[in-house]
Design a protein that fits this description.
- There is one protein chain.
- By secondary structure, the chain is α+β, with helices and mostly antiparallel strands.
- The protein has one domain.
- The chain is 36% helix and 32% strand.
- Strands 1-2-3-4-5 form a five-stranded mixed sheet, with helices on both faces.
- The protein is globular, with a radius of gyration of 14 Å.
Length: 129
């Protein structure tokens, strides 16, 4: 499965979670439910995966954690905020760069329609096919 197909599947599962729970819950609830759904569908998924920073050849464990990493290549950041802000997109882009991942999804579940709370971020000029 290519990266675009994978991201579409994850978005579909997120839509399912949102349709069953609706907006207004804590971020962690949506993250746990999406994690459960992905595992149930036989995806390799890691939750709260540590992400190190390399500075001058030193590996620093500074406490960064990816909400979800799907199939070792798709970063999913889950939010439950009134409105996504540029800082949320910047956070995801930083995670993509630090982890050398190609694609990430920013999912804000605190919206009436989840389709209005989805952002894709790409690291680099070309997407994997």
């Amino acid at each position: 499965m290519d990266l675009n197909e994978l991201s579409n599947k994850v978005i579909g599962f997120a839509l399912d979670v949102h349709s069953k729970l609706g907006p207004g819950l804590l971020e962690n609830v949506y993250k746990e439910c999406l994690f459960h759904k992905l595992r149930k569908e036989s995806f390799i998924v890691e939750m709260e995966k540590p992400l190190s920073v390399i500075y001058e050849d030193i590996k620093l464990d500074c406490g960064y954690r990816l909400d979800l990493l799907v199939d070792r290549r798709l970063v999913v950041e889950v939010k439950s905020v009134t409105m996504l802000k540029e800082i949320h997109s910047s956070q995801l882009r930083t995670y993509l760069r630090l982890g050398n991942y190609k694609l990430g999804l920013l999912l804000n579940f605190n919206v009436k329609w989840l389709k209005n709370g989805i952002q894709r971020e790409v690291n680099g000029l070309e997407e994997e096919t």
